[in-house]
Design goal:
A hairpin with a 2-residue loop joins strand 6 and strand 7. The radius of gyration is 19 Å and the shape is globular. It is of the alpha/beta class. Strands 1, 2, 3, 4, 5, 6, 7, 8 and 11 form a nine-stranded mixed sheet that branches. It folds into two domains: 162 residues, Alpha-Beta Complex (Spore Coat Polysaccharide Biosynthesis Protein SpsA, Chain A); 105 residues, no CATH class.
Length: 277
């Protein structure tokens, strides 16, 4: 048994060839292209993979379409983003896991190494972060509009190997443009969380790393001076300074992102007050 590959892409000509090369071991690779205007589709065609061009609107809708409307050759799907590379040790673990009939899990989370300016920024990127990448598609659904939550209908396991993440391959301008869009959605979500739910204090100390990360994020939405706190937490408390110049630059960029979220939350509050007057 092997594993099907699903890659969602939009204007990923800087990343897609490298991603595809790292999963060429699969005999069923699907690229779902969201109306790219660069060379993404042509790269997929040259690689000989299945290319499907479709746009469902938002990320949640597109990912739901990918699992409900696409037929895969194999029961297990590995779902890397276009800016991710799958090393050989992770490939071997994926193949072994999918071929084991005794496994009762329906999905698996994987850690990644965040690469920035040619270096793994382990400390300043708040490693480890676990994300869903291997699953049985019929068992997966999605929640939230930004930083989607993968919901599995059954037990979830954890793989030991890592994939490599290259979020800056398209350049700093592209990263800033993306995070400018994301910050608006984060601001809307943050206000919704603050207005509709209490902080889950117990989850801050939960053994589940996913629950801890979610609770920490919700706590951050409620704190003053978030940009400065984000920098201190990552650069000092998590020893991001040990990542050298790359760590300092990355921590400054993430503090800038927190500033964008904070400013837009304040802007949304002002707009809401004007409407209610």
């Amino acid at each position: 048994m092997t594993v099907s590959i699903l890659i969602l892409a939009r204007n990923e000509e800087a990343n897609l060839a490298q991603c595809l090369a790292s999963v060429a071991w699969s005999d069923d690779i699907v690229v779902l292209d969201d109306n790219s205007t660069d060379g993404t589709a042509e790269i997929a065609r040259r690689a000989g993979v299945r290319l499907i061009r479709h746009s469902a609107g938002g990320e949640r809708e597109q990912r739901t379409y990918s699992l409900r409307e696409i037929s895969f050759k194999h029961p297990w799907v590995y779902n890397p983003d276009a800016d991710e590379v799958t090393p050989h040790d992770l490939r071997d673990e994926i193949m072994k896991t999918a071929a084991d009939p005794a496994r009762y899990e329906v999905a698996y989370r994987v850690r990644f190494k965040n690469m920035f300016l040619g270096k793994w920024i382990r400390r300043s990127s708040l490693y480890p972060t676990w994300v869903m990448r291997l699953f049985r598609p019929e068992k997966i659904s999605f929640e939230r509009r930004i930083n989607l939550t993968y919901c599995a209908e059954g037990p979830v396991g954890f793989l030991r190997a890592h994939f490599l993440h290259y979020p800056f391959n398209k350049g700093l301008d592209s990263w800033i443009e993306k995070h400018n869009r994301y910050s608006r959605l984060e601001a809307e979500e943050g206000l919704e969380i603050m207005n509709t739910s209490d902080l889950r204090w117990k989850e801050l100390f939960d053994r589940d790393p996913i629950a801890r990360r979610r609770a920490l994020k919700e706590l951050f939405f409620r704190l003053p001076a978030r940009p400065a706190l984000r920098f201190v937490y990552a650069y000092i408390l998590r020893a991001g300074f040990l990542d050298g110049t790359q760590g300092l630059t990355y921590c400054r960029l993430m503090a800038m992102y927190e500033s964008m979220i904070s400013i837009k939350m304040a802007e949304l509050r002002r707009s809401a007050r004007k409407i209610s007057m």
